[in-house]
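Cont'd.
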Amino acid sequence: MDIESIRKEALDNLKQIKNKEDLDLFKKDYLGKKGKIREFFSSIKDLPIEEKKTLGQKINQLASEIEEIFLLKEKNFNKEEKEEIDLTLPAKPTELGSLHPITQVKREMERIFQLMGFSVVEGPEIEDEWYNFDALNIPEGHPARDALSLGKTFYLKGGNLLRTQTSSAQVRYIEKMKPPIRIIVPGKVYRYEKTDASHETNFFHLEGLLVDENVSVANLKAVLKKFLEEFFKREVDIRLRPSYFPFTEPSFEVDMLCTVCDGKGCSACKRTGWVEILGSGIVHPNVIKNGGLDPKKYKGFAFGLSIDRPTMMNYKINDIRLFHSGNLNFLKQF
Amino acid sequence: MIFSYNWLQSYFREKLPTPEKLAEILTMHSFENEYIEKKGSDYILSIDVLPDRAGDCFSHNGIAREISVLLNKKITYPKIKTKEILKDSILIDIENSDDCLRYTALIIKNVKIEESPKWLKERLEVCGINSINNIVDITNYVMLETGQPMHVFDYDKISGGIITRKAKKGEKISLLGGKECILDENVLIIADEEVPLAIAGIKGGKKAEITNETKNIVLESANFNHKLISTTARRLNIRTDASLRFEQNIDPNLTSYAIDRAASLIGLPSSTKIDVYKKKLKPWNIKINIDEINKTLGIDIPKKEVEKILKNLGFIVKENMVIEVPTYRQDVTIPENITEEVGRIYGYDKIPLTLPYFSEPAKINYDIFWQDKAKDIMKELGYSEVFGYSFIGDQEKNDFNLTVREIINPVSSYYKYLRPTIIPQLINFTKENLKYFDNVKIFELGKVFDKRERMVLSGAISSNNYLLIKSDILALFDKLGINKFSFGKDEIKIGKDVIGKVGIKSGITFFEIDFEKIQKNAIDNKEYKHVSYHPIASRDISGLIDENTEIEEIVSKIKNIDLVKSVEVFDVFKGKNVPPGKKSISLTINLQSEEKTLDGEIIDEIITKIKKTINWEERK
């Protein structure tokens, strides 16, 4: 066989190839180790050197010619094999896990306070009357004790009760730690309530406490404003109003300028322009004393806020009962 | 508490700010205003007087005093003119001066019971009190004005003198309004020689009631033990405008002022005051330190300003900053109370914002660290976090045969126990959610209560495939760095300690693991394992092993053999064709070297070694 006929045969064959399998076969037949071109090379090995040289060159030329066409064809085949897609077709939603919105908000609050040097600690949910009431300067016979203990507290058979606020951890930690104390105590609290869209029996509180030699209302204001600004991710105006809690003196209610109407008055702030956000104050000397410290030397500020309410504000949730509903149509939104 | 704007205006010659403005000033310095409502030519101000200030501010006098301090306006209290000329008297006896601190009475004769004048009726109406007759209305008016509740008896219906004493068990009283009440020895009463005339501080009785025929009256202005009144009112479930005030610390020195005011409004000659007051309450002193006040507030209020605030509030500033507290401010007993007074009047809005000095960085709480980590892993595994109440009822208790701790005062019988496990709630949630979802995977990391309060991690999936749960637990433990654990039939163990359980109920597979034990064994420290690029060789083997040998044990033994990458169990059975005392097991063994491609010879060698290690018997 001469070069020309091999060339013709190969090119004719290539032209007729319609699929990838045939193309692979062709590669084996002509370009492979035992293919026709190789075979042709071996057939000329006994020719005189000059002849071998010219013929060799020609075979090489033929080989690269065929290979070039072959590669082109192969590229075309590969292109044709690409799958067609159509993104306009409907797709099933991916099944993801989710974290409870309260968990997410609690983490965010913890993160912000940690940045300000507050360590996160936890206290027991079953408390005794001492830490829940007496240690917080709410002795037996005190009107605030009656208001909390008679109407709002769950009592357990065999003694003890479910904490009505995470403040119950205050004295536990004043006892345990050495000043400066900077802690927050997030956790579940319990109140006897008729449940409705804004009242629950199981909900979440975050208590903050700072005890040091010099602590002032000015410090309290700065910390709370900073926290609220980080939390709501915007500039926030706060105001302190006189209030009364047995465990702080002076006591304040902290309002935040309504973020919905910027203080102009809307339904979210009951037209007052302000939203009540937390209770706070300078720790009552009796509480410092109950924690085993000298109230003449140490002062502190404390604050307590609901975790549920800012969560509701954040996501515009209108029913607090959804948090303990176990309803995935609700929970998977977060 | 309701206040009349016009009434408050009457204390001042100068015009007060608008009701809205006034309410805002009070909100920022004294008490929150709840609402304002126009009523005729007057305005209702609903003011949420703080509980420690009820003693002096459940009165127009008290709120007017606050306003005068806040606006720096001169206050004029009503003028009192009495004519104590009657010779009449009545015997007053107090059985126990700890129950009745003071009893002041006055006799007025020849009164004419009639309708009240228009101005009086209007004032009462704005404050939400019904007009009854001129005399009763005046006592109510004086209560709204001074904060001192008063009572009036028909003098001619009283047999002998008046005694305040504890009731006898079973003693009865017919109350105004018709209700009959059976008393006991815990109830303080006002009585004559024969029967009870009134429940002290709470409500009057029929016996000496004022009627249209009444000619001569006895005015009562007394002070009772506030704790006693508060428990009695709650126990008898009777709340009146009087009891509301007597439950607070009212100044016992107020009785005579109030009775004079009432007599002056009635305008008729009266007897001299009959006043039983054994332990007179005198003003007390508190030593303050201006620097301390300023340090606590975080501001620099000049001494002059502090003194001015305290004087305006009725305190007397004596030498060396000793402050004499007026008896109407029984809430002020320690220097911190004075700090509050100064701060609120000066204005909390004037206090600057100063971040506290940096002391030391926050400490990482590893409990929370691991809780967060576990929650994140559960989420990665496709679980959604739920919260159940800490309460369960009989249904859960009986279905799961639980030992529970009982709540004395549950909100409902469905919530009368503390949960000792989360599983019943997770199963209920799963069932509920299956109405809307094809697949449900949920978890809770929360407190349960048995012998003690402890944290558990529980999960449930809506299929009865316990191996799916096992896969998830394996993934969870792997991510938490827990490696020393084993599985029993339905248990998860660390060493010999059972740390968790898996179960199936109504087609729902669940698990619950003691989180404290997980946390103890978790490690936040991963070490890189060499990645091999050599091919994996797989071999399937089937054979017999001892019936009692646990599969878990076999698998872990094989895994310890060199070059074994992983082991999968794809079949286990007993019975047909399997000799007694044995079970058949089929495994896929995956082998991989880090250095080379394994050849047949080495593979066979390892398989032989595996069979030897686990007492393998070929199937016949």
